Amino acid sequence: MTFNLRTAEAQDGEYSWCRRRNVVVDCLRALDADLIGLQEVHDDVQARDVREAFPDYEWIGVRRGGNGAAPLEMNVALVRRGAFEVLDRQFFWLSRTPEIPGSRSWGSAYVRTAIFLHLRSCLSGAEVAWFNTHLDYLPQARLEGAKLVRRRIDALPPALRVLVTGDFNAGKRSCVYRTLLGEGASVHRLQDAYRAIHTDGRNEGTFHAFGTLPRLQAIDWVLVSREMPVEDAGVACCNREGVYPSDHYPVWAKVRL
User: Fold this and answer.
1) What is the DSSP string of 193-242?
2) Short-list 205, 209, 201, 202, CA closest to 220
3) Is 152 helix (H, G, I), strand (E, B) or coil?
4) DSSP per-residue codes, 46-104
5) pLDDT (0 to 100) of residue 186
6) For residue 109, pLDDT beyond 90
């Protein structure tokens, strides 16, 4: 699953982290995913609360750093212990110098990062590559970030299956979407897990700005290799008595390795 938690650093008043925290934890527990990609996790109270609530998961994340705004913000990958073994882990920055922590390029509004994990299923031994990221909202930086992730995907061994999760700040008619799907690629072409099940694309919106948008924006996706069967997928419209867990809804998918 993928879920933008909305950073606790934001001054959200009635939607502050202390009011949303328990709803987030309950939502994550209900979905019960083996792999959880999170975005906008503030590495302070917010990160501590989630880590303490899910001790059965390995926590993998790094502060984005740099001289820009919100340097404590992280993308995080949670891997259920006993479900997957982490064979390799890498952090890279969405910039022209991806190995330099805190770097940014293309006029991005924020420093942006991505996580790469090479995983092996403890049940079947099947291996999979997983990328979790959060693209910038400015057009050039967003597209160049997507191209960088796609280059990393294309460099993987052909037989290795791929998962991509994140908040992409782009819709499903965008160049970003087509780039990450790998249209025209000879290997590692991906499919949208939600649309593999819901072919009409209805009710796929995730960003709702705490319930204020008349039409939800489908900017959070789970993408998987076309060779991986998708058994089910959905958007979890969590809400407890008017309290939203975030300004996004999580997207989940059940796929067979």
Assistant:
1) HHHHH-TT-TT---B-TTTT-SS-B--EEEEEETTS-EEEEEE----BTT
2) 205
3) helix
4) HHHHHHHH-TTEEEEEEE--SSSS-TTEEEEEEEETTTEEEEEEEEEESSSSTTSTT--
5) 82
6) yes
DSSP category for residue 33: -
pLDDT interval class at 68 (50, 70, 90): confident
Max Cα–Cα distance, the chain, nearest Å: 49
3-state secondary structure of 121: strand
Distance CA 20, CA 5 (A): 9
Could you report how far apart the first and last alpha carbons of the chain are, in Å? 15
Domain of 161 in residue numbering reads as 2-255
Whether the CB-CB separation of 112 and 93 falls below 8 Å is answered with yes
CATH number of the structural domain spanning residue 118: 3.60.10.10
- CA angle, corner 64, sides to 59 and 66, nearest 5? 155
For residue 79, the model assigns a pLDDT of 98
Q: What is the pTM of this model?
A: 0.97
Domains contained in the chain, number: 1
Q: What is the pLDDT of residues 145-170, one digit of tens each?
A: 999 999 999 999 999 999 999 999 99
